[in-house]
Structure formats: structure tokens, C-alpha cells
Write a structure and sequence with these properties.
Blueprint lengths: L3 E5 L2 H8 L6 E5 L5 E2 L7 E2 L5 E2 L2 E2 L4 H13 L2 E4 L5 H14 L6 E3 L7 H8 L3 E2 L2 H28 L10 H17 L4 E11 L2 E10 L2 E2 L5 H10 L5 E13 L7 H12 L3 H13 L1 E3 L3 E3 L14 H14 L41 H17 L4 E14 L2 E14 L30 E13 L6 E2 H11 L4 H13 L3 E4 L2 E4 L1 H13 L6 H15 L5 H22 L9 E5 L6 E7 L2 E5 L9 E3 L2 E3 L10 E5 L5 E5 L13 E2 L11 H47 L1
Parallel strand pairs: 1-2, 1-7
Antiparallel strand pairs: 3-6, 4-5, 8-9, 10-11, 10-18, 11-12, 11-17, 13-16, 13-18, 14-15, 16-17, 19-21, 20-21, 22-23, 23-24, 24-25, 26-27, 27-28, 28-29
Helix pairs in contact: 3-5, 5-15, 5-16, 6-13, 6-14, 8-11, 8-12, 9-11, 9-13
């Protein structure tokens, strides 16, 4: 019989913690929540001041009985669920089920699952934090009210089974608004003139700036030709040279949000996958030297703060591997509205560098761990230093002086960039090396040639998961721990689709968004949704009673729901009519939305129940027979292209089907298709092999450096 019982959320976490404690401690898992609002009804009594009706989750009866038995046999029960609002609420529900008083000192939390931290925290239990619990309750109950009262509006006017949510609907609105920006965008023409110049044998490029010291923007070819004509025979004289130094500082350790963004950009991980992999790294992985240990600190955090112990460990690792000049003791300021209960995300054991434990990790765990490890270590390294040069170069024509500018930079000291460079959504070339010769004021440089380039302004890019997370965080919508669920939900509901990392609204998403913003202006509103998040934060800090936040929200929300129900009573949502005729009754079929996307249905339902698959088309004809080409998806959501005549019902079926989008005038045959696919597969294998060689090379270099240092140290001794 165990003297102490520790209840955590997952078996993986339980297995890790067991190894750090004695035989008189039993560690078990609650498998997440044990109580929640019922699925069959709202479960919130609005007439009784929003009292929630919690029930034991169906299917967990035997688990709950087992927990009760273990708790009865133990002298002391510790509730060690995750150290956040959700974890606090789970601990509160467990206390209720096990009959533990609310003021009992039974709550322990681990920011990292290491032997030292676990043993220390078990000795320092506290009471359940009801402020954190109430903040979670407020979010859960408010979201349940919104979902249960908004969704029926969609069922009546659009389609059964649809759902609306407080945060997910705002996320869909952002994506729809961006799509409308793209559709309305009118490209504007602009031109650049480049002078290809040389000093001795060193070539460089200068860009046209303006005339007589004033900036000139070029909008059409006529303006460009006029300048080209004027400067055709001019001499190019250096009129000003400025040399300087530029520093680039490293990014701070990861927060949940920045980890999600960077894993999306660098690794191509969906947000949900990133959180699942990070959870595994936090809860524990079996490593050869250490046994089962948590490899990273808690992965749900808004903070960039790190402990002094971690700072000292980073210093030792950096100076030992790279040299003292690569280390800089850095402190990062956490945002004013951040929840700063935990450190930033960092490795728990700095000596377990990624290559050392690669064999203990899955490929995905290795990729994410390496990202977290390198980001943390780089955050404590010296800035990168660039030598910069900027030169003004003029050429005269008659009474006018035409101005060109040339800029260049070369890296002088790589600093943190030796290890890690943060990716950006909007790529720029500010850190690219571009050399220009050592120019002297008054000297003439040789003109090699003059080029002009026509360009057009581009619309804003569609959101990716990374850029959507960044926008949600900047606008204060949701919290980083909820982003994975938000994005998964809007994709699963088919309000949004993901193509080549880009998120775009479906027709269903546009229809639902239009209906909601026209009738629930205050609820489907970025500022309003962000304001509610601030209220949850106040509850967590003990500054606001949770029921008061719900009361303040519900009165105007109820009025909007009642108004919408009245106004929409006689409104009919126009259905999208296709150009396909029903072959049973002759009516033009309409586009409907089902579990697997669009399909065609006869508008004469229920008299005529004819349905047909919906075909997305592209504007390129079939390269074999010239018919329409349809876009279809595999079960995994991958697009493929098939001729409309490629059908068993067709007496002379066309055999065109391809993974590759056809191009106008392109030849196709099964042999060509096979060759293309083989070429793609070969490229993928080559890329993978190159990455593997690079990784092995880095490992080898690191090992050699450590061996060399060890020999040197031994010699000195």
C-alpha cells in the first residue's frame, strides 16, 4: 500500500515521474478531464445564475472507481495535473470526485519533469487556485452558451450539423476578410532601373533613386525610357560613401505561439502536431544515459523568462563549444499581457544536445527538440555583426543629375547565427550578404549595362497556420494553448481549406461568416473577442468574479440572438445553382455541403432525391481529349486531376489522370506521367540525403571540436 498517491493527466507523465520517487509513492493518470458539461444539452442553468451542471464523463466510470480506491488507500493524495488553467480545473474536478476539501494542501505542479524538480515540488504542495479554476470555468461556460445558441441559427438557415463558436468564428472572419482583400486587389505597375557597375574587376549593382536628390517613383515604361535615354552616355561618379556596422540580435526562447509559428515555417508541422510532439517531449522520453526524463519545460507559456540555473548551463555549453566571445548574458522582456507563471520553452538538460539523443527520439521529436534546443541556446549568444556600406552614385545629363544608390553588407562575426536563425513569414533580404567594392568619393566607376524591370504590386498573402497564429496573438484572440484546437476545428468543419500551407475560406465558410457578421456584430468581432480574453485574465488574477463576466456578456448576446431569430424567420439563403441538369426531373441542380465537402442535389427534394458528385474544374483543357479537367481529393486531402470523360459510364473513356496540374499545350501519356513522378521522388530522396549528410557533418564537427578541447584540457593538466 502506497503512503502517497500522485494523480497526473497522462500515462507517459506518470511513467516518467514514477522513476523519480520511492516505493511508497503510487503515480496514476486521470486521462485528462474526468468531469465536464454534458454533450446532450447545454448543461448551464441560465435561470440559476449560470450554474454549470457537471457530470462524470461517459466511459470513465471504471477509471473513477479505480482513482477513488487508490485515494482511499493512500495517506496523502497529490493532484499533479498540468500547470495551467486547464490543469487547475482538472485538479479541482478530481478533488470533488475524491472528496478532497477545496482548502486542502494537495496541489503540485511541475514546470519541468526532472528528478530534482519533481522531488522539490512534492515537498511544496499548495491549495487549488480557485482563481485559475474559475477562469477556465468562465471560458468553458461562455463558449458553451455561444455554441448552443448560435449553432441552431445556422441549422435553420444554412445546413444541419453546423457549429458556431466565439473564437473559431472570428478566426474564419479573418480568413474570409483576407480572401476579399485578395479578390478586390487591383495590381499597380511600377518599374526599377538597375545600373550594373564595376570598379576594377569587382562588379556591383546600384538602383535608381531619383533626380537632383529627390526620390522619383516610376509607374510606366514611358517614364523609364525617358530616363534611359537621358543617362545613356553619362559617367557614373561616386558622390558619397558611408561605412558602418550593423548588429542582429537573437530571438528570445520560444513561447507557445512562437514555437507553433516556427515549427510551421521551418518544419512544415501543423499547429496540432507541434503541440502533440511537444507534449511528448515534456512528459518524458526514455534516454540512454538518464532513463525516462522530460526533455523540455512546460510547452504552454506566454513567457520568455528563463531560470538562472538554465542561464548558467547555457553559458557553460556556449563557451565550451564555441568560445567565450559567442556568449552574452541576455534577459528578455515578457509582454505586459502575458501569463508569466512559467519559463519560456527550453531544454531541461543542456548536456543532452539533439545529436547526442537522436536515436532515442522519433524523427518528429528530434526535429522539434533540435528547434527548441538551438533556439534557446542561440538566445544566450552574441549578436551577429555585419560591416555595411552605402554609396550614392550620380550621373549627369544636360542640366539634370540622376541619382543611384548601392548598398552592401558582409558578415563580420556570425555570433548566434552560427547555430540558429529565425524564419519570417514575409521574406526579405535584409540579412543577405551583398558585396560592393571599397568605393572612394569622387571616383568614376565603369558602367557595364543598364537594365529596367517591370513589376506589379501584389495582394496580401493568404494566411498560413503560422501567420494566422501570429495575427490571433497580436489581436489578443484566444490564447496560444487554444490555437491548435481553433485551427483544427475550422478546417474539420470545412469552413476553411488548406492548400499548400495556405488557408482559404470555402463557399460554406463564406456563407456562414456572412450570416454571422450581419446578425451578431458584437459577438463576431475582433476587439470584442479580445476584450473577453482580458476578462478571463482578470478572473485568473482574482480581480473579477467569473459569474459577473458571464452576466455582462449574456444580456446583449441574448438580445442579438432573439433579434436574429425574428429577422431571419422569413429570409431564405440563396443556394448556389450549378449548370448541371437533374437527369430525373430536369431541374438545375444546386450545390450542397456534406461531411466530405460539396455535392450536387436536386432542388426538388424530397420529391426528387437525386444527388451527384460535385466537380471542381480548372481552366486548362484535358491534354489528351480537350474535355474539362476536374480536381478531386484523396482520402488524405491530396489533390489529383482527372478528365471529365474518365468514367466507366463513358463509351469511349479518356485515360487522363495525374498528380500534376496540367499546363496549356503540354503533352501527356501514362509513360510521361510515370517519368514525372519518378523524377519528383528522386528529388525528394536527394533532398533527404543532403539533409542527412549535413546533419551527420554537423555532428562530426561538434564531436571533433569536443575531442580536440578534451585533449587540450588534458594536455594543460
Amino acid at each position: 500500500m502506497a503512503n502517497k498517491l500522485i494523480i497526473v493527466e497522462s500515462p507517459a507523465k506518470a511513467n516518467t515521474i514514477k522513476k523519480f520517487l520511492g516505493n511508497d509513492v503510487k503515480v496514476v493518470a486521470s486521462m485528462g478531464h474526468v468531469r465536464d458539461l454534458p454533450k446532450s444539452k447545454m448543461g448551464v442553468d441560465i435561470d440559476k445564475d449560470f450554474e454549470p451542471e457537471y457530470i462524470n464523463i461517459r466511459g470513465k466510470a471504471s477509471l473513477i472507481n479505480s482513482l477513488k480506491k487508490d485515494a482511499k488507500e493512500a495517506k496523502m493524495v497529490y493532484l499533479a495535473t498540468d500547470p495551467d488553467r486547464e490543469g487547475e480545473a482538472i485538479a479541482w474536478h478530481l478533488a470533488y470526485i475524491l472528496g478532497i476539501p477545496e482548502d486542502a494542501v494537495c496541489r503540485v505542479t511541475f514546470n519541468e519533469i526532472t528528478k530534482e524538480t519533481v522531488q522539490k515540488c512534492i515537498k511544496e504542495p499548495r491549495k487549488i487556485d480557485m482563481n485559475l479554476t474559475d477562469a477556465q470555468q468562465a471560458r468553458r461556460i461562455l463558449d458553451r452558451i455561444v455554441g448552443y445558441q448560435l449553432s441552431p441559427v445556422l441549422w435553420r438557415k444554412v445546413k444541419k450539423g453546423l457549429s458556431a463558436g466565439r473564437v473559431q468564428s472570428v478566426a474564419v472572419k479573418l480568413i474570409v476578410d483576407r480572401e476579399e482583400e485578395i479578390e478586390k486587389f487591383i495590381p499597380e505597375e511600377y518599374w526599377n532601373i538597375y545600373a550594373k557597375l564595376a570598379k576594377d574587376k569587382e562588379k556591383f549593382t546600384a538602383r535608381f533613386y531619383g533626380k537632383d536628390g529627390k526620390k522619383v517613383e516610376l509607374h510606366n515604361e514611358t517614364e523609364v525610357k525617358e530616363i534611359l535615354s537621358a543617362i545613356e552616355n553619362g559617367k557614373y561618379i561616386v558622390t558619397d560613401v558611408k561605412k558602418g556596422e550593423k548588429k542582429r540580435t537573437p530571438a528570445p526562447p520560444f513561447t507557445t505561439s512562437t514555437m507553433q509559428q516556427e515549427a510551421s515555417r521551418k518544419l512544415g508541422f501543423p499547429i496540432k502536431k507541434t503541440m502533440n510532439v511537444a507534449q511528448g517531449l515534456y512528459e518524458g522520453v526514455r534516454v540512454e544515459e538518464k532513463g525516462t526524463v522530460g526533455l523540455i519545460t512546460y510547452m504552454r507559456t506566454d513567457s520568455t523568462r528563463i531560470s538562472e540555473e538554465a542561464r548558467l548551463a547555457a553559458k557553460k555549453q556556449i563557451t565550451g563549444t564555441y568560445g567565450a566571445e559567442y556568449y552574452e548574458n541576455r534577459y528578455y522582456r515578457t509582454k505586459s499581457d502575458a501569463q508569466d507563471a512559467h519559463e519560456g520553452i527550453r531544454p531541461t538538460y543542456i548536456d543532452l544536445y539533439p545529436e547526442k539523443i537522436k536515436d532515442s527520439l522519433t524523427p518528429d521529436q528530434y526535429k522539434l527538440y533540435r528547434l527548441i534546443y538551438n533556439r534557446f541556446l542561440a538566445s544566450q549568444m552574441s549578436a551577429a555583426v555585419y560591416d555595411t556600406i552605402a554609396a550614392n552614385i550620380d550621373t549627369k545629363a544636360k542640366n539634370d543629375t540622376y541619382n543611384f544608390k548601392a548598398t552592401g553588407q558582409t558578415i563580420k562575426f556570425k555570433g548566434f547565427m552560427t547555430l540558429y536563425v529565425e524564419d519570417k513569414d514575409d521574406k526579405d533580404d535584409e540579412d543577405d550578404e551583398s558585396k560592393i567594392p571599397n568605393l572612394i568619393v569622387g571616383e568614376e566607376v565603369k558602367k557595364e549595362k543598364i537594365e529596367s524591370k517591370q513589376s506589379f504590386t501584389e495582394p496580401p498573402a493568404r494566411y498560413t497556420e503560422a501567420s494566422l497564429v501570429k495575427t490571433l496573438e497580436e489581436k489578443g484572440i484566444g490564447r496560444p494553448s487554444t490555437y491548435a484546437t481553433i485551427i483544427s476545428t475550422i478546417i474539420d468543419r470545412r469552413y476553411v481549406e488548406k492548400n499548400q500551407k495556405q488557408l482559404s475560406p470555402t463557399e460554406l465558410g463564406k456563407v456562414v461568416n456572412k450570416l454571422l457578421i450581419e446578425n451578431f456584430t458584437d459577438i463576431i468581432n475582433v476587439e470584442f473577442t479580445a476584450g473577453i480574453e482580458d476578462e478571463f485574465d482578470k478572473i485568473a488574477e482574482g480581480m473579477e468574479p467569473w459569474k459577473q463576466v458571464i452576466r455582462d456578456f449574456y444580456a446583449p448576446f441574448k438580445a442579438e440572438v432573439e433579434k436574429a431569430n425574428q429577422e431571419l424567420e422569413h429570409v431564405k439563403i440563396e443556394e448556389e445553382v450549378s449548370n448541371v441538369q437533374c437527369d430525373k426531373c430536369g431541374k438545375m441542380m444546386v450545390v450542397k455541403y456534406g461531411r466530405f465537402g460539396k455535392f450536387l442535389a436536386c432542388p426538388g427534394y424530397p420529391e426528387c432525391k437525386n444527388i451527384k458528385p460535385y466537380a471542381d474544374k480548372i481552366d486548362v483543357p484535358c491534354p489528351v481529349c480537350g474535355a474539362e479537367v476536374h480536381v478531386r481529393k484523396t482520402k488524405r486531402g491530396k489533390n489529383y486531376y482527372i478528365c471529365a470523360n474518365n468514367s466507366k459510364d463513358n463509351p469511349n473513356p479518356c485515360n487522363y489522370i495525374s498528380w500534376n496540374k496540367p499546363k496549356v499545350g503540354e503533352e501527356w501519356s501514362p509513360e510521361i506521367e510515370k517519368e514525372k513522378n519518378n523524377e519528383k521522388a528522386k528529388k525528394r530522396r536527394t533532398t533527404k540525403a543532403k539533409k542527412s549528410v549535413t546533419s551527420k557533418s554537423k555532428t562530426k564537427k561538434t564531436s571533433k571540436a569536443k575531442l580536440s578541447k578534451a585533449k587540450k584540457t588534458k594536455g594543460e593538466k
